[in-house]
Amino acid sequence: MEDSVGAFVPHGRFVVAGADDGALAGLDFAAKDIIDVAGHVTGCGNPDWLRTHAAATATAVTIQRCLDAGATLRGKTVTEELATGLTGENTHYGTPRNVNAPGRVSGGSSSGSASAVAAGLVDFALGSDTGGSVRSPASFCGIYGVRPSHGRVPMGGVMPLAHSLDVVGWFSRTPDILEAVGRVILDGEPGHPASGQFLVAADVFELLDAETAQALMDAIGKVEGLLGSAKPIRIAEGRAPVSGLPAWASVARTLWGAEAWGEHQAWIESVHPVFGSGVAARFAARAAVTPQEAEAAVTSREQISDYLDDLLADGAVLALPAAPGVAPRIGGSDAEIEPFRAANEPIGSIAGLGRLPQIVLPMARLDGLPLGLGLAAGHGNDEMLFAMAIALRDAGVVADVEIPE
């Protein structure tokens, strides 16, 4: 297979054939290079990591389930270093091309996986999402993506970043494949509640510029034909146990920082890896989180999670931006990207803090560029979101994504 978009890492060019039949027979897939394949070194986006780690002795559960279901693995894709970043630009392995937004980033940290799906190199691809690393790339590339309920996807054989927020998610060009992969990967009994209230997080949409917000509100208007009239709410105000979106973002950032530094401190301090400037700065900030701050964040997170469980009971669906806007241009400086990153933190924190599933639908465009609409639901209601995406496609509200010529 020719990698026409730079989606695959050099050490990830290999093929593992799937079973002869199964629910995913005939499909090709790729996996983010933080997910193990037996006999191959998982590089995690950094040559020093690649150099200092041995080949995996076992294949990650998520990949193995796809193989057992008949899908063929076509290799490992570019990730920002240690799954950290928003743009998908990797100082060592380059920037995977975004065929649906030329000159724009494909989004991080699961950039290669999103790029490969958008370009038609594979039918689906596995990524990971801690603070938005599937949701933003899906939005930027104009494809379907899902962050599943935390705890429903086995994480064995996946490099941890922040274990209480990490999930393996995936991308596709059709909702049918998104659902089919979910049937294979997800643990637990599927829930099939009827959709309940349709809610819109008005305070989250206020983080966007007017044009971005209007494009997504137009998409929400189309979804109302299936889900009924949307009710605006201020999700981080009123009954919310932690008041204000900046505070929610701070809770997520503190959890992420404490857990990521706890996971990777020993390796960073012993190897002194060469990191891109943005990655280096984020790990420096994570090292500064105190035990007291981390303990307080755990308590706040549990309060937010319980609150969101109540809010989204009985099949309620919550509309959210999938990202703060269209994909930034390739090559932006850290200073130029920082405002975009700051806006993404509260947007990305909601599903993470609530352990919620969130699907991204390629429903909007702004200045000719893709813009995804996020729909979140109560924990465990992943299957309801898949069924909703298929129903919206069948109703002509959203379409399967074509491969550009």
Structure commentary:
The protein is of the alpha/beta class and 405 residues long. It has a single domain (1-405), classed as Amidase signature (AS) enzymes, CATH 3.90.1300.10. Helix content is 38%, strand content 14%. It has a ten-stranded mixed β-sheet with strand order 2-1-3-5-4-9-10-8-6-7, sandwiched between helices. Strand 9 and strand 10 form a beta hairpin. Helix 5 (175-185) runs antiparallel to helix 12, helix 8 packs across helix 10 (291-311) and helix 8 packs across helix 11. The protein starts with 27 loop residues before the first strand and ends in an 11-residue tail after the last helix.
The proportion of residues forming helix, as a percent range, comes to 25-40%
Please write the CATH class name: Alpha Beta
What's the Cα radius of gyration? 19 Å
| Average pLDDT over all residues | 97
Query: What is the helix tally?
Result: 12
Shape verdict: globular
How much of the polypeptide forms β-strand, as a percent range?
A: 5-15%
Structural class: alpha/beta
Largest sheet geometry: 10 strands, mixed
Name of the CATH homologous superfamily: Amidase signature (AS) domain
Q: Strand tally, please?
A: 10
Q: How many domains, in number, for the residues?
A: 1
Looking at the overall shape, the CATH architecture is Alpha-Beta Complex
Which fold name fills CATH's third level, the topology?
Answer: Amidase signature (AS) enzymes
Low-confidence stretches: none
